[in-house]
């Protein structure tokens, strides 16, 4: 049990050096997972770290490569494509929420292989089609295109993939 006069571990005492407190917060956050600079800035602000200290430390962390928004964005895009099957539009929205600069997001999203994006959309449609066996073709198409749209796929890609998959399903029946 902690003594009454000891400050809590995550809330250092009033006399603690703001820079060491901020450094600990940053290292704790980055030890769990990669984070964008914006996320780290918000975390430091919530913990009442002075802005000039936060800026100085974040600049230093960028210099040594511990904070890298471009690498973070690449990793985030790769992860969200694999685990959630998201398309470029949804990924762009998520990157914006994470505080990634538009230029960085555009550069990272431009690296997404259109073939991979189409293959992911196709897998999503095939998976969903299993539960739509008895539905009318137009109803199924509308639902599948809607699902892909919510996941951030362009309408052109969504319609093409759905049309092809429904045709293949019709041939196999």
TrEMBL record:
Cited InterPro entries: RecX_HTH_1st (IPR053926), RecX_HTH_2nd (IPR053924), RecX_HTH_3rd (IPR053925), Regulatory_RecX (IPR003783), WH-like_DNA-bd_sf (IPR036388)
A Pfam family per the record: RecX_HTH1
Region (Disordered): 1-20
UniProt keyword list: Cytoplasm
Location of the RecX first three-helical domain: 22-60
Principal location listed in the UniProt entry: cytoplasm
Coiled coil location: none
Domain RecX second three-helical: 68-109
Domain annotation RecX third three-helical: ranges: 116-162
Keyword Repeat appears in the UniProt entry: no
Subcellular location: Cytoplasm
Family the UniProt entry places it in: Belongs to the RecX family.
Annotated function: Modulates RecA activity.
Name used for this protein in its record: Regulatory protein RecX
Origin species: Nocardioides aromaticivorans
Gene: recX
